[in-house]
Amino acid sequence: MMLAQNLPWVPLLVPDMPSPETLLPWLERMHAARHYSNFGPLVQELEYSFAQKFGLEPEQVTTVANATQGLELALQALELPPGSRVLVPALTFVATATAVVRAGHVPVLADVDAATWLLTPEIARSACTRMCINAVLPVATFGMPHGMQAWQQFEQVTGLPVIIDAAAAYGSQWLQGAEGTLVFSLHATKSLPAGEGGLVVSTRPGLAAKVRQLSNFGINLDPATTLPVGTLASLGTNAKMSEYHAAIGLASLQKWELHAQQRQALQADLMQELQQASRYPLAWQAKGPGGPLQAPTLLCMRLPDESVRATVEHACQQARVMTRRWYQPLLPHMAVLQQRCLVLDTPDAQLLGQTLLGLPFFLGMTQPQRQRVLSVITSQ
Asked: Is pLDDT at 379 greater than 90 in this prediction?
């Protein structure tokens, strides 16, 4: 039997990118048009496809260079007073909080639901009774969709704008007939990969158009306004999606349904196999109010306590199986953020931060790779 130290690592994630052969027709179209950036024909086609899928007008959808800039620009487009307090979950990727800071505001770190791992409208309402909150930035944690009707009602009752950080939730998070704003990632590891890219979807009047303008330095391109075309209308940045990335996004879109089904099946199989293999009780993220995951991009389990997690981590390392503590450390423990955030009580997020562990999950996992992951869990 081959020693573990001689085995290749089982990777945590493997991007599901289109092959060069699949991309070639799109790249040939781009080259024939000699248009490589600045809202080219492929970007326009991709945006039109997204608008159709969400049942919106084209002006309610815009692409951006990545989801982090999408969040920053969506917050900027709200035109909140400088230093506004934006409620975010303590359990999330750092970009959720850094986008708030870079937009000139203060993240307020809140707890999440113990079962769904989501910042809910109920948690947000409770936070609003404790301090002044100016906006809410919930996260579709690990792609789990929010119930948009509840967030629309929250906006109507409180008057506070809500932007959903749906970075990992393309294909799972929809507007569901409600009003709202969603920001998706098209990163290489997401369910609809474009290598890099982001998507802003919003029914809020003018928000997507404002984000589009801000992504092009803030320059006015609309001849119908009082400003001359080319005039700086606001202080933006360069956050446009390129034609290269749009080509990848369009190619990925063609196979999205099939790959989403394959991701669902793989996750269900692995969860069942791990549940049967483990002598420890395992817990999984509960289905949220927005429905089930349609295209999972990772596999994250909850172990009984911190010591068990450490034991499993060590065993995985010995077997050369990659793992990840999502999301560690929690935002309240990030030294760079501590002087820039306000922190509410986060008991459930703290417990999740001590017990969650991500395991390898990607399309194309071989049977030996799956078996090695299961063998580690069985041996504990």
From this structure: no
